[in-house]
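Re: that chain you flagged

S.,

Sorry for the slow reply, it's been a week of failed gels. I finally had a moment to sit down with the sequence you sent. For the record, here it is as I used it:
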Amino acid sequence: MSYDNSETTPVEHSESRGVDYAPQERLPSPLRPLIDNDRLRFGLEVVPWLALFTFFVFLPLAAIFIWSVAIEEPFGMELGFTLDNYRNFVDSYRLSVFWTTVKEGLLQVALALLFGFPIAYYAGIRKRHSPYTFPLLLLFAIPFLTSYILRTLSWIAFLGSDGVINTVLMMVGLISEPLGWLLYSTFAVRLSLMASYLPFMIFPAWLAMSRIDDEILQASADIGGSPLATVRHIVLPLSLPGLVIGSVFVFVGVLGESVVPVVLGGGNISLVATVIDNAVNSLRLPLASAISAIVLLFAIGLVLVWDYVFGLDKVGEI
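Prediction finished late last night. Pasting the structure tokens below so you have them in one place:
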């Protein structure tokens, strides 16, 4: 009996086991034990992300809650503990603005679903294989290539007394004088918000619908399912994750909206972000932090309630 005394190199041995250790073999000898250390490798993978989360998420949130209980002074604050900032929030004006913001957020979610779902359905289901679908969807993203303030100011030229709408309506003889309620009104604010946040509903819904298998849609048609039945029993359940994400984007966006009510509202509507902005400009940082903390906790509470009622693990099931 003969024996093969030839030595197997580490690279050849690793290849025989299906594992490629070639990168480790190219490292200097002192560094190889570091790469083989599972704890160290786990730390190198986790610590950078943990540091980013700490500096950009945890510390700012911690500062908000710490400042929210600080003692307010005429030109600043003193770190301490007081609930006066939260009590100041529960006055008639600020609390009314908060509930106005919540109702406006829910209204914008409803409008985004009303107009965004058909667009996403047309692009993601009806015309999913068309080469022109994605370029047409990009048209909704073009306004985001410009400044947000510039986009808001452009509504003045569109809705003003000498704007496009009034000019066209007067030219065709439908009105004899400009419509004053188009600009500096609740209508102008809602129209601008809907135009701003509609893409945040369209794109998640379109992505969810585009992932639905063609065979599922074809099976529904083969068993005699009408387009409406297919939408109700197939498309809607499977696209629900995208619709939920879009709803969160729209609602949270409205909670943080402060520019549109000031520029287009004409004092007819105020949102909670405007109250926070005014508090910051008045150097009332504890009050601004308290309101921000309440808004944040309210948004988190809504997600938890939705999870309790519907169950996040059931989203997307037929």
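What I noticed first: Residues 10-78 form one domain.

Talk soon,
D.
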